[in-house]
Specification:
It is found in: Membrane. InterPro entries: Ig-like_dom, Ig-like_dom_sf, Ig-like_fold, Ig_sub, Ig_V-set, Nectin/Nectin-like. Its main location: membrane. The protein is of the alpha+beta class. Among the domains are: about 5-55 and about 60-110, Immunoglobulins (Immunoglobulin-like, Sandwich), CATH 2.60.40.10; about 115-165 and about 260-315, Immunoglobulin-like (Sandwich); about 320-415, Immunoglobulin-like. Helices cover about 15% and strands about 35% of the residues. The strands form eight sheets. Strands 5-4-3-7-8 form a five-stranded antiparallel sheet, with no helix packed on it. The protein has a five-stranded mixed sheet with strand order 10-11-17-16-14, with no helix packed on it. A five-stranded antiparallel sheet has the order 15-27-26-23-24, with no helix packed on it. A hairpin with a 7-residue loop joins strand 18 and strand 19. The radius of gyration is 37 Å and the shape is elongated. The N and C termini lie far apart (about 120 Å). The model is unreliable at about 60-65, about 170-245, about 245-250 and about 440-455 (pLDDT under 50).
Length: about 450
């Protein structure tokens, strides 16, 4: 049997069975081994008695002269075609038609499937921003639909990232465990380097190793402790600031890490129901908002079914000036008003704010209409607004781990002509009834409880 290279799903492949004999050919039969070797399905038969060919793999019958070799063509192979194939040859012993000799050979067909999708997300998003506390940040690359599992690696601004392997789990549920969370909390990162073949090999090699989580260096631990003390001092000395229409936080204390962080890599994979693999790769480091803002991160995938790497890119971006929209534009008393975020003032290299920002609504100088102090979400709904909200200022705060920004909008409430006309009509009718009753109130006369009994 001729060996077969891996075949990409959808391609056409030809199975070849070569044989030599001095006897007389009796038959050739092809089988696909199924159910883990417990069953065989006949897919092709050649019978020299009838000199005919019949195939279960094709719609038409073909007459072939099969003497020294036999071939079976599988058009547009699918995942279910993956597995073992056997060729059985039966011959009559030389000079005799009474003795039948059979020989067989086998070959394995490996069907490979390129990744169906690749995406990059931020773990634990949306999340608030803190200028007083250093936080770990994790990018998650999710690759689905591949067979076999692909090799996944990360780049920053086009350069391959050297990573330390963190504690690895064979299950996707593993990254929710306490141990994994503890590892991530201790995950700073490796220095970046130039792109070359040795680093690519090193990065791919580290994916298959189960490494020990490296502890924070002593000077980094001391820096974190100093950051906590500095944060406490800054909180005590903080003063109230005047807030303009839009403000972007750009003040960071001394907890900021060095320009060469340590990157930690975690990798999980599991088999999907269709036999393909789902892979999740996680890159964790101590975020530096000053240096990481506008940084381009890419997750790239190598797979034997791909002629070039497959990739997904994200740009880390602090939110800038949410663009607010108020509907209706001229709100009247009793209307339902919706104030929503339509977009952001994006930087020159950003297409959207990533990670997803946390949006919080507050009313300057008071509570919201429902009595709550704040509301989270992309839209603030004010139902049946009263005239008292006229001139109220509403603040939308957008924040992600890279920064925060505030945008304000003032609500102008106009008189509602329908409500005004209704009130005037009610007041006029009430006055007419009073005048017709001789100046007495039109309200019905009521007696105190028990007065009827006393009167009797």
């Amino acid at each position: 049997m001729d060996p077969l290279p891996p075949v990409v799903i959808g391609d056409t492949i030809t199975l070849k069975c070569n044989f030599q004999t001095e006897g007389t050919l009796r038959e050739i039969a092809w089988f696909q081994v199924t159910e883990g070797g417990n069953a065989k399905q006949k897919i092709f038969t050649y019978d020299s008695v009838y000199n005919t060919s019949f195939s279960n793999m094709e719609d038409t019958n073909k007459r072939e002269e099969l003497v020294y070799h036999s071939t079976v063509r599988l058009p547009e192979v699918q995942l279910q075609d993956d597995g073992l194939y056997e060729c059985h040859v039966g011959i009559y012993s030389k000079g005799s038609r009474d003795q039948l000799i059979e020989a067989s050979g086998s070959v394995t067909l490996s069907v490979i499937v390129p990744p169906r999708s690749i995406s990059v997300a931020a773990a634990n998003s949306p999340a608030p921003f803190s200028r007083y506390e250093a936080k770990n940040f994790t990018l998650v690359c999710i690759v689905t639909g591949a067979k076999p599992a692909p090799s996944v690696y990360f780049k920053r601004d086009g350069e391959l990232i050297d990573v330390f392997p963190a504690a690895r789990s064979s299950s996707l549920v593993g990254h929710h465990s306490k141990a994994s969370k503890r590892n991530r909390s201790e995950n700073p990162v490796l220095p970046r380097g130039d792109v070359d073949d040795t680093k690519i090999q090193k990065s791919l090699y580290l994916q298959n190793q189960v490494g020990k989580v490296t502890q924070l260096r002593e000077n980094e631990t001391d820096s974190m402790e100093r950051g906590v003390e500095e944060a406490s001092r800054l909180k005590l000395e903080s003063t109230t600031e005047g807030i303009p229409e839009t403000v972007v936080s750009r003040e960071f204390p001394h907890w900021v890490q060095s320009s060469d962080p340590l990157y930690y890599f975690q990798h999980w994979q599991q088999v999907a129901g269709d036999g393909t693999m789902e892979v999740r790769a996680m890159l964790t480091w101590s975020l530096n908002p000053q240096l990481d803002n506008e940084a381009l991160f890419s997750c790239e995938v190598n797979h034997p079914a791909l002629s070039m790497p497959m990739q997904a890119e994200v740009t880390l971006t602090a939110p800038r000036g949410p663009k607010l929209s108020t509907r209706p534009s001229k709100a009247k008393v009793g209307d339902t008003v919706r104030i929503s975020v339509q977009g952001f003032q994006l930087g020159p290299s950003a297409t959207k704010v990533f990670p997803e920002p946390l949006l919080t609504w507050t009313r300057v100088g008071g509570n919201l209409l429902d009595g709550s102090e704040k509301h989270d979400g992309r839209e603030l709904v004010l139902e049946r607004i009263p005239a008292e909200l006229n001139g109220s200022m509403f603040r939308c705060t957008a924040q992600n781990p890279l920064g925060s920004t505030d945008t304000h909008t003032r609500l102008i409430v106009f008189e509602n002509p329908r409500l005004k006309k209704g009130r005037e009509h009610f007041i006029g009718t009430f006055k007419n009834e009073i005048s017709q009753r001789g100046g007495h109130s039109a309200l019905p006369h009521t007696e105190p409880p028990g007065s009827a009994e006393r009167r009797l």
